[in-house]
Predict the 3D structure of the following.
Amino acid sequence: MPGRLWLPTLALCTLGAQEPAWVQLALAGDPGNSSPPALAWLRHDVLCQRPEWPAELPAGAAIAFRWTPTSLRIWRSQVLLPEGVAMVGEFAVPGREPIRVACEQDGVEEWTCTAGGTLPERLRRLAHLLGVSVTATATPPTLDLAAALGNLAGPAAVGDPFRELLQQGATSCGELTWSTWSRNGEFGVRGRSDGGLLLPASLLLLATVGEATIDDTFWQSAPTTFVERWSMRAYSRRDGDRAEATRQLVRSDNGPDRETLLDMLHADEGSRLAAIDALVRRGDQDTLPAIIRAAEGSSDLVAGAAVDAMESLWPHARNVTRASVRKAVSQSTIAALHERLARLPTAAPRLRPEDSTAERSHAWRMRLLIGLLILSVCLHGLWRRECARLAADG
């Protein structure tokens, strides 16, 4: 599979056929394998496996390549890159002028191009799904590449080499943080990951179509429902958008299932608070031990939310759940949890309103059955008495 797969450029080929897409990059020599991890993966696991790789070219040599939808050419680079620069070049997508690329050895990469122009539909849709905005934000957004790719690519068969290679690349890239700028008629994107900026973007784009190069209308897998879209952002974003995605999920009438909320207990502070609030509002007393464990090592806000959750859910908790809560509190270093547990009642669990209604209905049915049984016994006795009287008169 690696021998016939060229990930970033194949992804760009899916942008559309209105204008040719192309990439031309020069990579600095890397004899000691000291370049960013994902760029090293690109060199050794993808490019070196291509039949276009010159047989006399060492794997760690400075290289250049140019890709078009119909060809790929790799050669020894004669470009002398400044110290600390891992990659330079340009790429083009339909609807825009060529975009200049410069990636440093620490994974910081910058794109610059003339302001204006339009993006292909697939790129616009992908940005919308991921919650990516081209406008500058106060806090640079952060995206977990492996989580985002897993959501976009959808389920895969065990041992699928294509998906495995995609996941290797995304895992090598790690988390991507970026910001945008605009000045003097130019627009730029500056980002950082363990693979720069172009490689992560290409991997995400490729995840939407799989191995085939298909037109803009085809998506191999893409979140479509409200819950799926916000779940992807809740799982993959590593910034304030993650908390917002969590809030949108817990407010939805058809919001996340219990497993999603439990997963969010292991996310950032905002997501934990939103998940705890949702579980308490749902009255899910069986999740109380998980809430208490999630508060360990968190901020005072999360610890306070766990204390409040214990007070709200404890009266309705079953005995087996209460035992798990006591065990979780005994392992916790949060003093407030120990103090609150000591003050909580030890009486039998109190039925919630919905449970109380069900219990009353059950009791009423039992009383009715008993009454019918007594009535039938009485009627049977009267019937036997009348039978005996008729026999005596005869």
Notes: The chain has 15 helices and nine strands. Strands lie at 22-27, 63-68, 71-76, 85-92, 99-104, 108-114, 142-144, 175-183, 186-192.
